[in-house]
User: Which sequence fits this backbone?
């Protein structure tokens, strides 16, 4: 089991179906807004696999592994992976949207001007055991079977300096647990993001963009030395320290914010600041009212506190700091918890 956690999921272990027939989730504005110079409008256009170039040799950097095939490459830093595609973002939006629909998801968020799309909550039907009864009845009673887990995925497209597009896929999961020994009541609780699920969908997206099944599997499996993110103190202010240049630290922090459910309302890459809303979890680490939010559109969070997440770098070292709404450094316990959450995800 421990060894299997280090490899990507087998494709037959993923079979998603949305929990709703239409995008009914009321999604708060937890969108990472692109800076003004990177906004774009989709002009359409199909992506042809024949446009791919011949394979290039894999290249490895000291802190980020980059493996390229044609105009698609995958980069990895720690347990985070993302794609870099040598095509403009407006040429990728439609294929990426089609990709999620082909994999059984409905889109609850489809914001081309922000470069963000997010799926509805969905169930992985491949996790339901195929016992003798289900084999005998086939799909007749299929709707009576369910799992206590739901997943959703956010895809973020960003232009980089050389005109290519970076594609990030982040996972969020919930699990239904009993709240009493009699097992007559349940609540939904967040569960840890699954980097291997993210890697599996990156692999599938590579295939969608023209890479063969075997080549995509080999590229995603490429690994590097694990990096460590550490929480320290600087004159009484908690900080997160990364052995990364600004570009890499910016990517890793942004993906960690997406994974851990922060509401990213805006961002300013030039200043190195994410503008976020943070909500404290309940004492049992559950998200109040999640079940109603999962299947309805009536819930809004009114108790969020706004912060700024600052990423500042010198050479190959970066420091992440939590600032208050006015831009002053935060030294509160909440700031420490936010950095601890980010560090645990980036590790």
Assistant:
């Amino acid at each position: 089991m421990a060894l299997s956690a280090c490899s990507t999921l087998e494709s037959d272990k993923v079979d998603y179906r949305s929990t709703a027939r239409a995008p009914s989730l009321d999604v708060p504005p937890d969108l990472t807004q692109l800076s003004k110079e990177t906004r774009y409008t989709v002009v359409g256009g199909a992506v042809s696999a024949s446009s791919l170039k011949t394979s290039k040799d894999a290249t490895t950097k000291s802190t980020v592994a980059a493996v390229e095939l044609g105009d698609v490459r995958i980069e990895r830093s720690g347990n985070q992976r993302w794609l870099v595609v040598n095509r403009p973002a407006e040429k990728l939006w439609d294929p990426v949207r089609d990709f999620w629909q082909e994999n059984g998801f409905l889109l609850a968020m489809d914001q081309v001007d922000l470069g963000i799309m997010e799926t509805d909550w969905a169930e992985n039907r491949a996790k339901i055991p195929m016992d003798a009864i289900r084999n005998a009845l086939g799909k007749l009673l299929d709707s009576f079977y369910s799992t206590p887990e739901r997943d959703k995925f956010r895809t973020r497209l960003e232009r980089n300096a050389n005109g290519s597009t970076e594609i990030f896929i982040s996972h969020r999961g919930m699990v239904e647990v009993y709240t009493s020994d009699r097992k007559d009541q349940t609540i939904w609780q967040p569960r840890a993001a699954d980097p291997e699920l993210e890697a599996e969908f990156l692999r599938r997206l590579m295939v969608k963009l023209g890479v063969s099944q075997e080549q995509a599997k080999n590229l995603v499996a490429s690994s590097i030395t694990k990096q460590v993110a550490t929480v320290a103190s600087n004159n009484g202010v908690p900080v997160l320290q990364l052995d990364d240049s600004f570009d890499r630290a910016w990517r890793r922090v942004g993906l960690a914010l997406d994974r851990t459910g922060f509401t990213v309302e805006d961002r300013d890459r030039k200043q190195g600041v994410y503008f976020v809303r943070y909500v404290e979890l309940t004492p049992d680490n559950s998200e109040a009212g999640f079940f109603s939010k999962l299947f309805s559109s009536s819930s809004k969070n009114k108790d969020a506190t706004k912060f700024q997440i600052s990423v500042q770098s010198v050479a190959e070292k970066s420091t992440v700091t939590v600032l208050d709404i006015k831009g002053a450094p935060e030294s509160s316990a909440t700031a420490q918890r936010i950095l601890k959450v980010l560090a645990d995800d980036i590790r």
Notes: The chain has one domain: 10-346. The radius of gyration is 20 Å. The CA atoms of residues 66 and 75 lie 4 Å apart. Residues 195-208 form the longest helix (14 residues).
